[in-house]
Write a structure and sequence with these properties.
The longest helix has 26 residues, at 47-72. The protein has helices spanning 3-13, 47-72, 77-92, 95-119, 149-167, 175-191, 202-211, 214-231, 300-306, 328-346, 359-373, 403-416, 421-431, 433-446, 455-461, 468-480, 518-521, 524-527, 570-576, 585-594, 608-612; strands at 253-258, 262-267, 279-282, 311-316, 352-357, 379-385, 418-419, 466-467, 490-491, 494-495, 505-510, 532-537, 555-561, 579-581, 616-617. By secondary structure, the protein is α/β, with parallel strands linked by helices. It folds into three domains: 80-200, no CATH class; 213-242 and 422-463, no CATH class; 253-392 and 482-624, Rossmann fold (3-Layer(aba) Sandwich).
Length: 626
């Protein structure tokens, strides 16, 4: 049976499972008239045959889109072509821009020629004709200043600059299409960077000559080893040294709740007294929770427990095809609300410090807004770690989040029931291709070295999936329509407005975050009608959050905006908030202590029922699912 036939059979058996069904995918209600055949339909064709024809067309198109997605890493060719033709057509009818580009090209060639002539003179101090961008470290080595490699990399950077000019600033091109074309051109140019080839990279060439090519032999072996592991869905080299429950996620605790979506872990106290308000941590479901409980030295969970807090952690199930119909509301109800209900049984008559990381912070905000709307206020405070609630300016991750791309992803997920971990990883790597792709190729395959595996890398390789329906709703409601920030996101048929949240908020953003840019996270100041303490810390989306005390080269800025304070734009905020050295964790726990009661005896581990019939020890079973 062909793939299309199998999917058609599934659709006939389970028509309600379609992610974005067309008009014929939902049976008409009893009180609705039957659809009237269009004039182009033959008179002998009945409604049933028309419905079957439409269903066959949908199945065929989706099957083809799925096969294409395997070749394009989930990117929609239609979305790329739409952006490309928008740019090309407007450039074709802009003779002024064309002349300007010709002039810029001639000036750049003249600058390069002058640079070449200057390099030929007997002088050691030759100024570059173009400097790399601050974050571009490909040509930072001294060897790149030697001829001819200085000319080669300068020519590349001038070409890169020219293409930036060519893809931006054209009147009539939509802003989204301009960003897509500029991003795509940059990615293509990065493929041909002189740093990526043996003969044009002086550092690789010197290593090759010194080792008589042994580095390339080691690199070839590294490539074959990586390819074999990827083809067989095995973890990367060195990940075997890290094991969940053995040297990762070993903070003592018990699973006190398990349902079809989460396991709730309660961690054992380490202090004779604790703050009365427990902490509930909601991690993102696109990651395993133990990024916040790696080794004891950098475990946020252990740090909080040692500071006298009772900590609960949600561990999400790694969904499969059978979970395709789980939606955002299921994650809210079976995740956040179920956890709060269980915590209230264990620690009754007290409020909870809610902590949400990345998408977990977004979900926590939705749950808090809906509960506040309904007159329920279970939160003493909320902490949002690299979490966005306004997705209008969510960085380069939104470059290809448009109707065409989302529909393409839906067709891909409709066939397999989920978004695969490798497809998500590919999208994130694309955002930082120089750091995550090309630099690794140079280091591992050309230099022949291996980057030592460490805990955060091992965690990053332990990826998860996302259910088809949930991911579709997340992209459409939050990214495409920005319903949450604009007060149009509905929970139980009514809008959940973030302005209803009254608990004080502690927001954390990271300076080099490519997933949740800090200026986007900063919009908490605009959206919330409560006190907001905001921290901007050094590091990226993960390393900036996992920033334990004692780690070198760490700093942060912190300031509080009360309800009565005037709004400051992000740049003014940065200029006004003094930089502090070290980890932001102590400042956070001090803030939590200020919003907590006096210490009391630790609560029991689990409720009476779970103490008689404990589920299992931490880290539980869901975190081990592959």
């Amino acid at each position: 049976m062909t793939t299309a036939a199998k999917i058609a059979k599934r659709e006939r058996l389970h028509p309600e499972q379609s992610i974005s069904p067309g008009p014929s995918a939902e049976p008409p209600a009893a009180d609705k008239p039957s659809p009237v055949p269009c004039r182009a339909t033959a008179s002998w064709r009945g409604d049933a045959e028309e419905d079957l024809s439409q269903r066959w067309a949908d199945v065929t198109d989706r099957s083809i889109h799925y096969m294409i997605s395997r070749l394009t890493l989930g990117l929609s060719p239609a979305a790329l072509l739409e952006a490309y033709f928008d740019w090309l057509i407007h450039l074709a009818v802009s003779p002024g821009k064309q002349v300007q580009l010709v002039e810029k090209g001639m000036r750049k060639w003249a600058r390069l020629a002058n640079y070449v002539a200057t390099c030929a003179r007997p002088t050691d101090d030759v100024a570059r004709c173009i400097e790399p961008l601050p974050h571009d470290k490909r040509f930072a080595g001294e060897d790149w200043g030697r001829y001819p490699f200085n000319v080669i990399h300068q020519a590349f950077l001038l070409q890169q600059q020219w293409w930036h000019n060519a893809t931006t600033g054209i009147r009539g091109v939509s802003k989204d299409h301009e960003r897509q074309v500029e991003f795509t051109a940059r990615q293509i140019l990065d493929v041909f960077s002189p740093a990526n080839f043996v003969l044009t990279n002086p550092e690789v060439l010197e290593r090759t000559q010194a080792e008589a090519g042994l580095n390339l032999m080691r690199g070839a072996w590294n490539f074959l080893e990586d390819w074999e592991r990827a083809a067989n869905a095995r973890p990367p080299v060195g990940a075997e040294a890290f094991s969940v429950g053995e040297n990762l996620a070993i903070t003592p605790g018990e699973v006190v709740l398990r349902n079809d979506l989460i396991e709730l872990i309660q961690y054992a106290p380490t202090t004779p007294s604790v703050r009365p308000e427990p902490i509930l941590i909601v991690p993102a479901w696109i990651m395993k929770y133990y990024i916040l409980d790696l080794r004891p030295e950098n475990s946020m969970v252990k740090y909080l427990v040692d500071q006298g807090f009772t900590v609960f952690m949600i561990s999400w199930k790694n969904p499969g095809a059978e979970d395709r119909d789980l939606g955002l509301d299921d994650y809210r109800r079976m995740g956040v609300l179920s956890a709060i209900e269980k915590i209230r049984e264990i620690v009754p008559e007290t409020k909870v410090h809610g902590v949400g990381y990345c998408l977990g912070g977004t979900l926590l905000s939705i749950a808090a807004a809906a509960l506040a709307r309904n007159g329920d206020d279970p939160f003493k405070s909320l902490t949002l770690l690299a979490a966005e609630v306004d997705f209008k300016d969510a960085g380069e991750l939104t470059l290809f989040t448009n109707e065409s791309q989302v529909a393409f992803l839906e067709d891909m997920m409709w066939q397999q029931g989920y978004l695969d971990a490798s497809q998500m990883a590919g999208a994130f790597q694309l955002l930082r291709s120089n750091d995550l792709v090309w630099s690794r190729i140079v280091h591992d395959y050309l230099m022949g070295d291996r980057e030592p595996m460490f805990d955060l890398m091992a965690w990053n390789a332990d990826a998860t999936r996302m259910p088809a329906r949930m991911h579709s709703e997340y992209l459409r409601k939050l990214f495409l329509r920005n319903e949450l920030a604009e007060g149009r996101y509905e929970v139980d048929g009514k809008p959940a407005a973030l302005t209803d949240i009254r608990a004080p908020v502690f927001g954390v953003a990271t300076q080099t975050d490519h997933v949740a840019p800090w200026r986007s996270v900063y919009k908490l100041h605009l959206i919330l009608d409560t006190d907001v303490t905001f921290v901007l810390t050094s590091g990226g989306h993960n390393a900036g959050i996992v920033s334990e005390p004692g780690r070198k080269n760490r700093s942060y800025r912190i300031a509080t905006k009360t309800e009565k304070d005037l709004y400051l734009n992000p740049d003014d905020w940065v200029n006004g908030a003094a930089s502090e050295d070290g980890s932001w964790w102590p400042a956070w726990t001090q803030w939590l202590a200020q919003h907590s009661g006096q210490r009391v005896a630790p609560p029991p581990m689990g409720d009476p029922a779970s103490r008689l019939h404990p589920v299992t020890k931490a880290p539980g079973t869901y975190v081990l699912m592959k």
